[in-house]
Specification:
This protein has 255 residues and is mostly helical. It has helices at 3-21, 25-38, 42-55, 60-72, 76-89, 94-106, 110-123, 128-140, 144-157, 162-174, 178-191, 196-208, 212-225, 230-246.
């Protein structure tokens, strides 16, 4: 049975079922679609959302549901088309702008991501994830001041957004602003003491500042988390060589 015939059969069967139990077709279809989506049956969920859309073409929740399922199925081009269609009919739909911005970000289309994420924020500036993803887009565009601003706003809204602390630290590391990098990683490590890369990069910043004892301690902590982390072994060896040649109490400000 080809897909068009199967779809028509599903609709007819669904209409008959709803008529027998006197439930509005679109309501039953949405209930089924949500249940399918929650259980990971995304193809079936899409079929049910589309039954609802045949009944009510402007049913926003159904269109958004289709887009979410397409993302889960890695059907990114289809999801992009779905969200563009939603925006053409519902220009103030925050979720459509947000999801489209995420899709463009994942595709490396950073300017496009900025456009749609900024639009989502004009609709609702209080969603921390939108600020965070906008920060990622600015980071990839090397607009670091803007990226740091968005990460900071994300953390004001959601202080538990650990990746924002990490990316703040990462930008400061790129800019060789090691004191600020240590501060950002420190905030992350207070929430997640076992964060491997935060431990390692904190050590790296201490090393760059010539603070070898503190660097050594961080590299050791990183190895406690992952003994097989080769970069930490090499960094620890270099650090211990510095300490051995200069004496633990004679650290310099510049390596």
């Amino acid at each position: 049975m080809n897909s068009k015939i199967r779809s028509a059969f599903q609709v007819l069967s669904f209409v008959a079922l709803c008529s027998s139990c006197q439930v509005p077709i679109e309501k039953k279809a949405m209930q089924d679609a949500d249940d399918f989506r929650k259980s990971g049956q995304y193809e079936k969920a899409i079929d049910s959302y589309r039954i609802a859309l045949k009944r009510k073409p402007d049913l926003l929740e159904a269109s958004l549901g289709v887009g979410l399922c397409q993302i889960e199925l890695a059907q990114y081009d289809s999801a992009q088309d779905t969200y563009l269609d939603i925006i053409s009919r519902h220009s103030d739909c925050e979720q459509a702008h947000f999801r489209l911005g995420q899709l463009y970000l994942n595709q490396g289309k950073y300017q496009e991501a900025v456009v749609f994420l900024k639009k989502a924020l004009t609709i609702n500036s209080g969603f921390g994830d939108t600020h965070y993803y906008l920060g990622l887009a600015y980071r990839e565009l090397k607009e670091y001041d803007q990226a740091l601003k968005e990460f900071s706003l994300a953390l004001e809204i959601n202080p538990d957004l650990q990746d924002a602390y990490y990316n703040e630290g990462n930008i400061y590391t790129r800019l060789n602003q090691h004191e600020k990098a240590i501060e950002a990683y420190g905030k992350l490590l207070r929430k997640n003491p076992g964060h491997l890369m935060a431990l390692y990069l904190t050590g790296d910043s201490y090393y760059a500042l010539g603070r070898y004892s503190e660097a050594e301690a961080m590299f050791k902590k990183a190895l406690e988390v992952n003994l097989g982390f080769t970069a930490a072994h090499l960094a620890l060896k270099k650090c211990q060589e510095k300490l051995s040649s200069s004496g633990a109490g004679k650290e310099t400000k510049n390596p």
